[in-house]
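User: Structure with iron/sulfur cluster, tokens only please.
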Amino acid sequence: MKKVIPLEFRRDEGRSPAPHFSGGPLVDTRQRAMHDLRISVTDRCNFRCVYCMPREVFDANHPFLPHSAILTFEEIARLAGIFVGLGVEKIRLTGGEPLVRRDLHRLVALLAELPAEVTLTTNGSLLAKHAKALKAAGLDRVTVSLDSLDDTTFRAMNDADFPVAKVIEAIEVAAAAGLAPVKINTVVKRGVNDQDIVRMAERWRGTGHIVRFIEYMDVGSTNGWRMDDVIPSAEVVRRIGARWPLEPADANYAGEVAERWRYVDGGGEIGVISSVTQAFCSTCTRMRLSTEGSLFTCLFAQTGHDLKALLRGGASDEAIRNEIAAVWQRRADRYSEIRTGETAKLRKVEMSYIGG
Ligand code: SF4
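Assistant:
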């Protein structure tokens, strides 16, 4: 049973007034509410996926964050409670690879006390080992990133020689541990894994798990993105629909990022995430908290807002809440609506630092 934290938005009489936030619904400059919080718990990963942490950049000399610089579980949980008080209903743990952070289930247990859904995105390599403990700690759902079912392609994409069979096994272990249905995220890049689209759909049809195909994006500054590399979601739907007819399904909730498509024959559903060809910035309700406690209002942000200094400087919950609210109220991000080949070259923060 989750503990309910009272929502205390009102400014107390006699106390110093909130500089920017005086209660009521918290919205940004485009009237978007804050509903989702993505927390990167580590900037490290045991994979070196070419589109995310290419080995030539993230090599032995890369300056990963020292332990003292990253937020503790207690600090993360305190912030998460404040975010929930401001309207966040979903918390997603990301990284890097979140399961390389030791005892992650301890953080899940702290977050599970909050009246919010707690989910995790993982590359699956360590999931089989931790699935039971995560579920017992209160994890609600898990999303596994898996870009190919072909072992040679998968090993080349993760650049860590990790076999695909182990990730597939982890998905089943997670489901058996009570984390079903598992969502499986596949980033599709033309000429790299697009030949696997139909095979991927076939593998998960009828299992209850939901594969979601994501358009390849210009995340970070190191992946050398070009529009030619993008397979539009419409093409993904066309290719799968040619084999097993599909029909659109309603969104589960307003602002859902994935567009749902259902197999007409009852074989389940797939999702497509059209981050490039159909930007969904107008309904983007996501805030991101980096490993070292900076806030980012967009996946493509160039700068963050430091919360760690407030946390470690003894600021009250109210002061931190006001700072978070002020950051959100100033938010005007809509990167995917204005993306061009030129913006793709801008220096952006790496995805492994703020979480995908
Ligand atoms: S580009 Fe930024 S504002 Fe647009 S959907 Fe992505 S994270 Fe949200």
